[in-house]
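The material for today's practical consists of a large collection of protein records. Getting from the letters to the tokens is the skill we practise here. To make this concrete, we reproduce a full record directly below:
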Amino acid sequence: MFNKKLETVILLPIVMINIVILPVRNLSSQTMGIWSTEENSNLDTKGIYKPDRTQASVIYLGNPFKDRYPDNTEWEYARNVWDMILWNQKIYFGHGDVARNSGPTDIWYYDISEQNFINEFTADEEQIYRFREFNDCLYIPGHDPTESHDFGNFYVNKGEGWEKYRTIPVEVHVNDIFIFHDSLFVTGSKGIYASADSGLSWYNYGNSGSEFFVFKDQFYCEGNPHCVFRYNGSGFLEENVHFLPDNHNLNHIMDFKGSLIYINRENLYTASDIDNYKMMDLFTGKNPRDIIIKEDTLFILLSTEWTDDCYLTEVFSTEDLESWHNEFEIMTSSFALSFEYFSGSFYISLGTEFYPDTNSIGISGSIFQIIPTRSLETAERSRLFHNYPNPFNTVTTIKYHLQKSDFMTIKIYNLNGQEVETLVNGYQTAGVHYVKWFAEGLPSGLYLCRLHAGDFSEAKKLILQK
């Protein structure tokens, strides 16, 4: 929680800054790294479960949003941090809630060098859903104005403070903003707009969309409903493409080394051309939340419900979309919705759902710094991880790490010691692997999963609950 609020008013050319100094402290050694199901009652009050192994250092940075919404009620609390972006060695947070009309919304950032949170500006929006960076400037599309709906807004920070532009005609929800070929584009519920004078006037091309992206030098807008519009220089035409899954609800669409990358809450997808897509089997059964690109590396944040009020939160990285590196994994009391990376550290924020039985929500907006201390793939020994989800209903995923290539088996046993099924039986290479267990025809109860690889053997309990 906050110490007593220390306020410093600093006069800048455009805005007044309100600085709140927050304590930055390391959690105890018992609250670092990988959580064990045997310790699921040991929940740190900030939202990180106490672990049994040290794989990452966890630093609680604070929760600036609780100062504005102290009652933590259904109507007054900004429930999620929708987006995070690193800009000028500051991490900006997009937060708020259009469903509960929680605006106006403060623009907060975390100053990495000073280690404090700064309230830089107040946007006249119910929430800040997305940031974009172009030409060393930071942009915010006005997602839902607190003012009349005669005009929509967008905001620009050129390094000297925020400027508000209330110029987009009859646009209530500005979903995205983009610069392509020196023109400024926005898309929302009323159309796709273009401006040749930096947002002072606009032309409406019609249609509507949710997110812009560039792929192979072509400019696109993901449309509503399931469709894609391509910009041809004079308008946006609907394209008959097959690189989006039918139940897409996609976000974070971007080009990574010539492949289109995007996620929904079910998987990570890649497309090498405009007519097909591939789902990454590695993340089947998990819940991708965010992806970012840093130089030659793609990072993906996954936060998957493990049990009630418990989420497996992890980050993977890749340089070629073939080999993936598990940066860290921790257990959190709520899902992580967005993240950033800077100088060897990951920064994550927790979101939460509304609990109607208590008329309140849980830990929301807590910000953590995660410093990986030991790669899961380079652990000193082989390891069988806990399955997820657990308990499960008919299907669960089992993760395991082999220290070296070897002949190995994974078998399932019932409580009588009888073998139920052999999941793996053969030679496998060193590294992290996954296998699914489909238990449709078996009764509910406790089962044992055992891994044998050379001289190594480990077992975990699985709970089938139909």
Summary: The CA atoms of residues 413 and 420 lie 5 Å apart. The radius of gyration is 24 Å.
